[in-house]
Amino acid sequence: MMAKLADLRIGNKLLLAFALLILGFGAMLVFSLERFVRLQQADAEDFTRRYERVAETKDLLINILGQRIALQSALDGDEGDYLMEIQRSSERSARLLARLRSTLSGDPEVAMLVDKLEEQRSVFAHTRDTQVLPLIRSGNREEARRLFGGIQNERVDTIAVLGEQLTELTALGVRQGLEQAQQALAVQRLQQLQLGLLLAGLAGVFAWWLSRHIAQPLMRLTGWAERISGGDIPTDMSSSSRQDEVGRLSQAFTRMGLYLQELAGKAERLAQGQLHEDIQAVSERDVLGRAFATMVRNLRELVQEMNEGITVLAGSSEEILAATSQVASSTQETATAISEIATTVE
């Protein structure tokens, strides 16, 4: 995997790095927004449910108190209209209790209060319908008033106390829900910070990897180029097997170093007089190789001409030496003849 990454072009590496960073931060943003939206929806649903519970509880208490007032009015006056109102209120209280039970969310303490509330309302309604109202209809108002002012009032007070407890418990749940929401937001902020640090760490690791695979090899190649520009041909150049721009540049530098070393060796051998070695250009664009080949060819021709001239000079010298020997012999003979003539004259 790392070898494949190393072989990618530098532009692709940078593009991949930026893409990973953008995707990472984008994923973190999407994750954070999704968590925030879910948390907000859960808080809104919980608040709505608790608010409806408080509202239903208040409506139920008002309804029960309204029934007590209607019963008191029925005891004091014409029961006709009040009895119909009591009937409607009783049906409404039953619906309110059903809606109140639908707002329960697995809270056992709230469910227990609702059960007690429903039990008290049921007993209150049963006593009202089976005892108080028949007594009112039969005209036995004193007995109805005694029953209503005793146990029924106690049940209404109990319902009111239970309703207040349910309201307070729901308000406590709202406060706890807000605290939990704040804690969840704090946890989410911590998670975002951790994800941000993780992405920053990954970005740092990737930057280090890019520096190690791009900057450091380029610095090494720069050092080789500076040495070559000063006439020092490095002998320790090693190429990389990577296939990106830096790898190919390193391979090209290695080939150039080997080429210069080969030319330097040939130049040294030429300086020692070894003109028999053939020098071939690496390619048609090898200006230096062609120049070297031309120089060697010209040197060979020059040496050949010099050798021919030396051969001619050697031949001429032999002829001159032979002529000189003949002249010397003739001179000796002339001298001998002159001596003989002189002797004869005497």
Automatic annotation (TrEMBL):
SMART domains: HAMP
Any GO BP annotation: signal transduction
Residue stretches making up the HAMP domain: 212-265, 267-304
Superkingdom, natural source: Bacteria
Gene Ontology terms: cellular component: membrane
Keywords, sorted A to Z: Chemotaxis, Membrane, Transmembrane, Transmembrane helix
TM regions (residue ranges): 193-210
CDD domains from the UniProt entry: HAMP (cd06225)
PROSITE patterns documented for this protein: HAMP (PS50885)
Family classification: Belongs to the methyl-accepting chemotaxis (MCP) protein family.
Entry-linked PANTHER family: METHYL-ACCEPTING CHEMOTAXIS PROTEIN MCPB, METHYL-ACCEPTING CHEMOTAXIS PROTEIN TLPQ
Protein name: Sensor domain CHASE3-containing protein
Naturally occurring in which organism (per UniProt): Pseudomonas borbori
